[in-house]
Specification:
The protein is built from 16 helices and 13 strands. It is α/β, with parallel strands linked by helices. It has a 6-stranded mixed sheet with strand order 4-5-13-10-11-12, sandwiched between helices. Strands 8-7-6-9 form a 4-stranded parallel sheet, with helices on both faces. It has a 3-stranded antiparallel sheet with strand order 2-1-3, with no helix packed on it. β6, α5 and β7 form a beta-alpha-beta unit. α5 packs parallel to α6, α9 crosses α10 and α13 crosses α14. The longest helix has 15 residues. The chain is globular and about 75 Å long.
Length: about 425
């Protein structure tokens, strides 16, 4: 990989060769892939990028850690829409607001970006089996991307994983292990199994290449904005891999001169499980928390990638927001009613955080914000129905319909 110089530990600074199967540093620290930006500048310009027909994450190949001969993965991952929402911006009191709907990726979440990268790197090692632990979205994205590439997958999920996500896993042909325990226990069992059978490890907190896939979301955002930098980018945060990936992509673009400054990050966690934000807010070491939230995809009480996440938030001068389950579901309805976007609870947590920061007057009329919806609402329809209510139930009788409309004070317009 001519564009990659190595993999540096974010904790002790040791540098390793960027081999396809690398995981963590000997000290236990997470590795960060480093690039030769001077070389990349000779191969990638804005004009070259604008002329590309590829509408997937692989359009940014010069900024990705893959071998020259590594093929693009079969599913079309990336290039999800970025919608400007002026009415919602005005409602919240913002100058401008955009919503990046990454729930429209092939298996319904931003995690497809990481899984596509994992499948590509697994191919470079010659692996036939790939595995991970997940609260749901990483699992379904891995199962789908692995199936498309002809790889077997073994997936470990906590027993509370929503049925919609488990259904995806089984449909994609994965061997699914539902662990009777929380995410920490699920991760540990997956680690032991991966070590025992030598499977390719897709766990984002261990495999440094996965955040390189996730960073393509921010590369797209900036290209879709015409390289005009917003004031803030809001991200739902669980184990920390997504927000660190978003920051890495932004820094890459700054390093090659595609943008002239960096935005600030907004890290949003569920109030019932916010160890990363708590560490940032109180300037303390990370302490584990119970996983007490309906936003299952960000319910990570013992984050496996806190170092990169905390560093990204602090380095960007970012804000943190912890939101209740009710605020999360209010944001789901707000995006649905205002934008026609259906996000799962974890997927809309970032929007809930933006709304909270606006109410607290930490964001306002001078600010422009991009909020990322990281997962599709069809992943968890049970909670959507629970918080949105049931449909009106009537027989096929106009008089009964009119009676119900009157009772509910509904006045249809012509």
């Amino acid at each position: 990989m001519r564009n990659v110089t190595g993999a540096r530990c974010v904790r002790c600074g040791r540098v390793y060769p960027a081999e396809p199967g690398i995981t963590t540093c000997e000290c236990g620290g997470i590795l960060d892939i480093e690039y030769d930006y001077d070389y990349i500048k000779t191969k990638l310009t804005k004009d070259i990028l604008a002329g590309r027909r590829t509408t997937s994450m692989w359009r940014y190949r010069e900024l990705l850690p893959v071998e020259e001969g590594t093929p693009e993965t079969p599913l079309r991952v990336g290039w999800s829409p970025l919608y400007e929402e002026p009415a919602l911006a005005a409602k919240l009191g913002l100058r401008r607001l955009w919503v990046k709907d990454d729930g429209l990726n092939p298996t319904g979440s931003l995690k497809d970006r990481a899984s596509a990268m994992a499948v590509a790197k697994a191919g470079e090692t010659g692996a036939k089996v790939i595995a991970c632990s997940s609260t749901g979205n990483a699992a379904s994205s891995l199962a789908g991307n692995a199936a498309a590439a002809g790889l077997a997958s073994y997936i470990f999920v906590p027993e509370r994983a929503p049925k919609g996500k488990v259904a995806q896993l089984l449909t994609f042909g994965a061997t699914v292990v539902s662990v009777q325990g929380d995410y920490e226990e699920t991760f540990e069992l997956s680690r032991q199994a991966i070590d025992r059978w030598g499977w390719y490890n897709r766990n984002a907190a261990v495999n440094p290449y996965l955040s390189e896939g996730k960073k393509t979301c921010s590369l797209e955002i900036m290209e879709q904005l015409g390289w005009q930098v917003p004031d803030y980018v809001a991200v739902s945060v669980g184990d920390g891999c997504t927000i660190s990936g978003i920051w890495k992509g932004l820094k890459d673009l700054y390093a090659i001169g595609f943008i002239d400054h960096l935005p600030r990050l907004i890290s949003v966690q569920a109030k019932g499980c916010c160890p990363i934000n708590r560490a940032v807010e109180f300037e303390e070491d990370l302490r584990p928390m119970k996983e007490d939230t309906i936003a299952d995809s960000i319910a990570v009480g013992v984050p496996r990638n806190p170092d990169k996440a905390i560093q990204a938030i602090r380095e960007s001068g970012g804000l943190v927001a912890n939101v209740t389950d009710q605020e999360i579901m209010d944001a789901q309805k707000l995006l649905g009613h205002s934008c026609g976007i259906f996000g799962e609870p974890a997927g809309v947590a970032a929007a809930a955080g933006v709304a909270k920061l606006c109410r607290d007057e930490l964001l306002g009329e001078n600010d422009s914000v991009v909020t990322i919806v990281t997962g599709n609402g069809l992943k968890d329809v049970a909670n959507a129905i629970k918080f949105s209510g049931e449909p009106i139930r009537v027989p096929s009788d106009m008089d009964r319909l009119l009676q119900e409309f009157d009772r509910l004070d509904i006045h249809p317009e012509r």
